[in-house]
Design brief:
This protein has 439 residues and is mainly α. The protein has one domain (12-407): Alpha/alpha barrel (Glycosyltransferase), CATH 1.50.10. Helix content is 41%, strand content 6%. It contains 17 helices and ten strands. The chain has helices at residues 9-23, 52-62, 67-79, 101-104, 123-129, 138-151, 176-179, 189-198, 203-208, 217-229, 236-243, 280-291, 333-346, 349-366, 391-395, 409-419, 422-438; strands at 25-29, 36-40, 50-51, 90-91, 213-215, 244-245, 250-251, 254-256, 371-372, 379-380. The strands form five sheets. Strands 1-2 form a two-stranded antiparallel sheet. Helix 1 (9-23) packs across helix 14, helix 12 crosses helix 13 and helix 13 runs antiparallel to helix 14 (349-366). It is globular. The N and C termini lie far apart (74 Å). The model is unreliable at 409-439 (pLDDT under 50).
């Protein structure tokens, strides 16, 4: 009998990620309209539907195992798209919205086939990383046209959100001074959902009714990366102008009405590290003053989702008398990955390797969970969690990470212009739409 050696951490991570992605895979045809679908549900028990930015991250992880599945998942997002270009936060393919979620989800009617809210629009960037050409996809062009027309409230290219969960960072304490009693983790959140339903989740109507509306950092980082993937002008200068706080050395959300009190230091403040054109001076401040400080974000499972120095930092899975408290301290693989790319780009090789090592060790020890205790490495939240398979980006790093996987766009764009391909024409349409939005 041959005794096989135990798998290495890298092999074990790969085996676990493949097991979760394949067991969470769903495909079929929607009975109501005959539209086929294929996607990875985030977690079978708690998150059975298709979530927008989850699917984008699943597709990035799938490229390590089966790139075809990744692009099928992203095409399923486009299959749900409205004619005007909108794609919702959550899409209910094979089972309708039910139970208490009918009251808390951002739908206008419980019979809706997807929510009327957005999530961080990273589709074009994910499409590029997964191996496709986003500029060749008319649906991605239409989505960006809808976003520019409906969520760029000031004409500087940046997007505004109408609810904390549109950021994907639902219960983050950065939203407590903005939405106050109606923040995601507070009892008034249901009232916020129902007020936004009456206003059709239209940002300008919500702002006119008193808001709040918020220009959130991570949302715009991922949107900015998608615009770069499409060959559009960078949003990084606008993000710096609006959200960079020089005195604190952090990016902070803007909001109307103005926040009541200081915005806590959260992982969202560090997410611009993923931008390939972030000025080096700003990047190094984010890394050296915040990310690598063990008193703040550099916990044993790094980075924590909130600075450990903040009064709002909490690592309990649930509030003693209320809802789950995720994004208020625990570590998440997806934001760790964004920060890791910044470490790689800026030359912090040892720190990047250590962040990857810690996250790989956490996944091998605790499995693919929704989030992790930043000190004990215990898995928390949902089990068999899909986007935690992004740990493959840390265990099997790609050289393209140093340029946020955008490094070859210049040469590709030049070839398209020379051949006059349809992709070049679609890029021109997007560029025209952007210029009009600035006038």
């Amino acid at each position: 009998m041959t005794v096989m050696p135990p798998p290495s951490d890298r092999e074990l991570v790969r085996l676990r990620c493949e097991s979760v992605l394949r067991s969470n895979w769903r495909e079929g045809t929607r009975a109501a309209d005959g539209i086929p679908f294929a996607y990875t549900c985030p977690s079978p028990a708690h998150y059975p539907w298709q979530w927008f930015w989850d699917s984008c991250m699943h597709a990035i992880a799938w490229r390590h195992l089966d790139a075809g599945n990744g692009l099928r998942e992203l095409r399923t997002l486009l299959a749900a798209q409205r004619e005007d270009g909108f794609i919702g936060h959550t899409i209910f393919w094979d089972r309708p919205l039910s139970g208490v979620r009918r009251y808390t989800y951002n739908v206008v009617s419980p019979e809706d086939r997807m929510t009327s809210s957005i999530q961080p629009p990273m589709l074009a960037w994910a499409w590029l990383i997964a191996g496709g050409d986003p500029a060749a996809e008319p649906g991605i062009v239409r989505q960006h046209e809808w976003l520019a027309a409906n969520r760029d409230l000031d004409g500087d290219g940046l997007l505004w959100i109408v609810s904390p969960d549109e950021s994907g960072l639902d219960a983050s304490p950065q939203f407590d001074p903005i939405w106050r009693r109606r923040a995601h983790s507070r009892p008034g959140y249901v009232a916020l959902v129902h007020r936004n339903r009456r206003l059709g989740f239209e940002a300008r109507r919500i702002e006119a009714a008193g808001g709040p509306v918020c220009c959130e950092v991570t949302t715009n980082v991922l949107y900015g990366l998608s615009r770069l993937a499409l060959g559009l002008p960078s949003l990084t200068p606008a993000l710096i102008d609006r959200c960079w706080d020089e005195s604190r050395g952090l990016f902070l959300p803007d909001a109307r009405p103005a926040p009541e009190g200081a915005i806590p230091a959260t992982i969202a403040a560090l997410s611009p590290l993923a931008l390939p054109d972030l000025p080096e001076r700003i990047g190094r401040r984010l890394v050296e003053e915040h990310l690598l400080d063990p008193r703040r974000f550099w916990t044993p499972v790094a980075p924590a989702s909130v600075s450990a120095q903040e009064p709002s930092f909490a690592v309990r899975d649930r509030h003693p008398i209320g809802p789950r408290r995720y994004w208020r301290g625990p570590a998440w693989v997806n934001l760790a990955w964004l920060c890791w790319m910044g470490l790689v780009r800026l030359g912090y090789e040892q720190a990047a390797a250590e962040l990857a090592r810690r996250m790989v060790a956490t996944v091998t020890g605790s499995g693919l969970r929704e989030y992790y205790h930043p000190y004990t490495r215990a898995g928390m939240g949902a089990v068999q969690f899909g986007w935690s398979t992004l740990v493959l980006e840390l265990s099997e790093p790609n050289p393209g990470a140093a340029g946020s996987h955008l490094g070859g766009l210049g040469a590709v764009g030049a070839r398209r212009s020379a051949t006059g391909s349809p992709s070049a024409g679609r890029r021109a349409l997007l560029s025209d739409a952007w210029r009009q939005s600035q006038s």
